[in-house]
Amino acid sequence: MKSKLLSVPYLIWMLVFTMIPLVMIGITAFTDNSGSFSLEAFTSAFEYTNVFLKSLWIALLSTVLCLIIAYPLAYIITQMRESTQNTVVMLLMIPMWMNFLLRIYAWVLLLQSGGPLDTLLSAIGIHGNYSNNTGAVIVGMVYEYMPFMLLPIYTVMGKIDKGLIEAAQDLGSNKMMVFRKVVFPLSIPGIISGITMVFVPSASTFVVAQYLGGTDDIMIGDIIDKIFFTNNHIGAAISLVLMIFILVFLVLMNLFGDEEAIA
Amino acid sequence: MEQTSKKVIVSLKDIFVRFDGEVILNHINLDIHEKEFVTILGPSGCGKTTTLRIIGGFVDPESGDVIFDGKRINGMPPHKRNVNTVFQKYSLFPHLNVYDNVAFGLKLKKLPKDEIKQKVKKMLAVVDLKGYEKRPVQKLSGGQQQRVAIARALVCDPEIILLDEPLGALDLQLRKDMQLELKEIQKNTQKTFIYVTHDQEEALTMSDRVVVMNNGVIEQIGTPEDIYNEPVNAFVADFIGEANILNGIMIDDCRIRILGKELECVDKGFGKNTPVDVVIRPEDIIITAPEEGQLTGVVEKVTFKGVHYEMSIRCGKCEILVHSTKSTDIGTTVGMSVVPFNIQIMNKLLPFYDNIIETEVSYGSEDENYIEFKLEKETIKVDGRFYPEGTRLKISLPPSALSLAGDGTGDLQDVYIESVIYKGEHNEIILESDERKWLMLSDTDEQVATYVPLSFDFSKAEFEVLDPEPANGEGER
């Protein structure tokens, strides 16, 4: 009885700030300006299919890159002494304390022509502009979301019982085998939550592409951002479609995760 | 004695291990024979697990040799050693089922699949887990997990199985069953088992030989019978089984004085009027009529233990524990006698009784009547005494002058409690500081293997001024 009572504030919170807005988005997406039922907004939304696909592609690439960078890093950190581990994790987290926009600006400055990267490469005879392209968007995204990949993997890896590693060594595994047969399979839950935590926000992110991307590097988040000023029905429709895509992705991720855990 | 003819399979020679400046193993030597069930027994913190980990390859000794089958294997990583371990917490792989856990080592050896399957099946039958192949290990009970862990080690067919308190997490009944089962498995597989435990009963039940350790050294090695009947010192006697350990004086060969009475015994060679420790097992004391006994006492407590009554009998200031099949009423005076053969005489753990400090006064104040001297990097203040600076002193502190400072500020900080032995009247506590050992009496039961602050009561001490320092160097100790 008591435990139910305690959950009341959260239920109210969820109702007011999650359920009602969701329903409102649904209603807005399926109506026109006069307020009557209409699928017009969805028809218009499909004009953005290309942007949509590109956004998902960029999000996917960023997620994969985050994983490739964060996984070995997490492994290396867990091998350090406890005190060193805390310092390194702290150092990796500090950039996150800074404003999101500032960090993106920093990348704009770093990559633009005449910026530090350009100056450095010009010294060995390579000139160019490293901003305003898809690559720059991905770099920005990876930079923004890396910690969300690193932390869950690091946490799960750090919790692997040292006894299991010793047991594996005892049974004849060298370092490589210990990793393949024990550390990797046991770190999969961390990988899965890392992927989820990076893919979901990066698929719907905005601003990054506006600053770092070229003219055709606009992402679906930016479209939603803009279109809500002129037509909130289309905006709501796109949001709804994006939500469904992410939901499907999450369900797939969970299925994959369960299978891995059993195998 | 039959063991000596067998081949030595592992030999530890002069092993010394230190972690963070603390000595864990102090130059130990140990030979283990083929097909033997050896138990390393000792209180927690005595270095027994470290000894096992040295053989397993998880700890490298600072000095000393680990010899396996005639070859020195220091520094060889665990995966190259023909040794498998059953870990304290089992350490089964949670992501694998029973079959894959047991097959883990065989797969690494790249055996053909059919052979692996056959071996795993056979081994699961040995540990009584037929048909459990597909079960996830986390769904098994403690005893079943334990058996998987044993199967996982055994199936690799190592020459030695190391077992690190494998039954510690099981409840009493299951533990007893598993003890017999383990012994059975060892007999059937003809492997060398090295077993670590702090449970003396477990050690006596299962082992061919027992190695008793304390504070980084081996106190005694012998068959369970040897260790029980002929403990080499009070620590071993106290640790194995129940025992009355008393202070005695060896008057002459075969004559011992305990509790104010002179008794006959069978031990020789301790010299004349030598202080010794005496152990008498409670079941070796025979209750008689008061006038017929060698000793008399008053029954203070009687507890029914199923097979026998446990009686606490006060004999002068001492409390004596007696096991008897007949009960006696509380308050009655009884006689007690012991056959000479059952009085076991042992050398004292420490060669001294009073704690002697030889030192030099580092500061003396005549006005305020105190002196200071240095002891193991600490400055010790003695009130109510004055000697000029530089005076050489011999301070004799009887064991009763030492106490463990409850408020956390002692004269010496962080002194290690090496052993606590009940001598019928007080606990005799042996302490180890950085450079020496101390003997202390206490009525409270202190926890062994912990660090405590030690205080001195100099009002109980005797001071003796020594001749000035002789020319040849430091005179301390």
Provide a descriptive summary of the structure in words:
- The complex is a heterodimer of chains A (263) and B (477).
- With 263 residues, chain A is an all-alpha fold.
- Chain A has a single domain, classed as MetI-like fold.
- Chain A contains 13 helices and no strands.
- The mean pLDDT of chain A is 87.
- Chain B is an alpha+beta fold.
- Chain B folds into 3 domains: 2-234, P-loop containing nucleotide triphosphate hydrolases (Rossmann fold, 3-Layer(aba) Sandwich); 242-346, Nucleic acid-binding proteins (OB fold (Dihydrolipoamide Acetyltransferase, E2P), Beta Barrel); 355-465, no CATH class.
- Chain B has 8 helices and 30 strands.
- Chain B is globular.
- The two termini of chain B are 41 Å apart.
- Mean pLDDT of chain B is 87; it is low at 473-477.
- Classes of the chains: A mainly alpha (263), B alpha+beta (477).
- The interface between A and B is medium-sized, with 18 and 24 residues.
Measured as a percent range, the helix fraction of chain A is over 70%
Most residues in contact: chain pair: A-B, 18 and 24 residues
Task: Please state the average pLDDT score of chain A.
Answer: 87
How many domains make up the 3D coordinates of chain A? Answer: 1
Task: Please sum up the structure shown.
The complex is a heterodimer of chains A (263) and B (477). Chain A is mainly alpha-helical.
Index terms:
A: 263 residues, MetI-like fold, 0% strand, globular, B: alpha+beta, Rossmann fold, OB fold (Dihydrolipoamide Acetyltransferase, E2P), 3 domains, 5-stranded antiparallel beta sheet, 8 helices
